[in-house]
Please model this.
Amino acid sequence: MELQEEKVQEVMVLAPKGRLDSATSPLLGGRLEVLAAQPQARLILDLGWVDFVSSAGLRVILAAAKQLRSVSGRLVVCSVQPPVQEVLDISGFTALLTIRDGRDDALGELAS
Amino acid sequence: MINETDSRPRRHSAGQGTVAHARVLVVDDVPENRDLLVRRLARLGVTQVDEAVNGQEALDKLDQGRFDLVLLDIMMPVMTGYEVLQRLNAQGRMHDLPVIVISALSEVDDIANCIKEGAEDFLLKPFNSTLLRARILSSLEKKFLRDHTRQELQRKQAELAVARTLQLALVPPPASRETAYGPLSIDLVLDPAKEVGGDLVDHFALGEHLHVLILGDVSDKGAGAALVMARTCALFRGLAARQDAQQLFAAPELAMAEVNEVLSANNPSCIFVTLMLATLDVSTGRLTYVRAGHVPSFLRHADASLQRLDHAGGVPFGVLEGAVYTSDSIVLRPGDCLLSLTDGVTEAAAPDGTMFGDERAAGWLAEAMRETPAVGGLLAAVRAFEGGAPPSDDVAIMLVQWALPAAQPSDGPQKGQMQWEYDLDPRPQAVSELVDQVLELLPEHGVEARVAHHVALALDELLTNLGSHAGASHCRVKMALAPDRVSLLIEDQARPFDPRQLAPPDTAAGLQERAIGGLGVHLTLSLAQGFDYRSEEGRNLTMLWFARGACPSSDSTVTDHR
Model:
């Protein structure tokens, strides 16, 4: 997995590329933990290049969402691919997370 | 149609019309007495009179024809009147044959004995014409009243028997259908407490993938409830024939609202119907149900855990016009058993007042999954529980069962199968490499990308658990490819752990409450169509399979969110 980062104004956009499984998720998790520690941090997790998320990946996303809430930050997930959407649905994460279709929608969500 | 000529009420007034039809047998050994009685009868309008000179001849004539009244002398040669009564009693013929015994005043004890044997009245010789007239007419009138009542009862029973046959014919026969996951069977029974009742049970296929299940209870018993029951069934069948039937039943809350509108309008007697409507998508296993005030269905999983489908979806039919209904949904998997019933089962009472209850129903379900399940067995158990007393309530039961697949890849590749075998140390990196291989290999052999994804995800979850939590340093994975499924067998010698024993995560919890564990197992069990685990002699076997060409998830997953 590769992890691309981009800062759009005050929003950090994280775009992992590849699979989020037990081998690769700790890398994303470590980065999310650092970014989510900033007070009022605003993060976008762009999953447009991720076609596989196991429960290990779900755990780091859930941990980040919880951590952000404690610092009044926000997390928006976007560009979710069908196989990953299925996993989010089954695990109940679709209702738990803020999910937008594309990156622009996600930026709009955080700007509002 | 019932022939009404016989059922028309007879005139039972003591007038000429009644006695004109009467047939009377006069039994006396003295010709003058017989003549006198025949004349008196003729004067009353009774013209069909037969005569016998002793008891034996009287019995013969009674054997040959039907009589409405017998005037029977007691003291006769060959056979006395008392003996005639004893014989008739022994043959059980006294209940519909009025007998007036005739005797002298000196024979009061004989008269009393004859009354004990069932004679209806007596006349003293010499005859008093007023008493004779009164007693003959009174006996005939009573006879005709009894006949009339019996005929009415027979007519009603015949009508109800026809109604019962028709009501039971509303229940479709048990059915089974082939699905991508294996055979699905539906067994059902309806047993009204009286001839007809208000419970209803129905099921039908809708389109290619949907199967509709209906089970309900009208708030009353007997003929009125039966009409509402039939109407409710017909309303659902009517909806199923509409152009938009698929949409109505795919979201069963819509079908519920439609039927409720009809049943709630103009309902002066305030009859209501509790109901469970469920739609099963056999291509995904998803069961969407609405429960309107009805007993929650029992869902027993292959791992013996029990779940009640207790989402409250709205008020019973007939209570509220414009009522809104909501549905809930779950995914059924092979090995699951869904039992729906009416309170005629759970509230059936034993002679000591004990109720059959939810636990006995669930207990039967547990038994049924080991034996051959047939809902007739549960009905028999309920009726036996009532201890032979007349049934107190209607019973409707439906059992939906998805058979467990028989084939497992444990005994090497079968005909038409391909098999791969991997030995590995289940650390994250090795697991990741295996997932890479599987994601490449399966699509190369024609497996749909989604199914390959499910297999890879399950492997990732199970092997990660094995390496990280059970402390395994070695395991063997066999993957087999058959035309209809992909099967996995994982063999290890680590600490035994049956994933099905893990409590499922609360997927409806909010962010703060949401726990982190249990997700991987939940994903695996949700995605696989078959799962089994056993541990013996230090060797653990995890077996699972995935149907090709079907996925147990909702349609929303195919939407492209990019």
DSSP finds five helices and six strands in chain A.
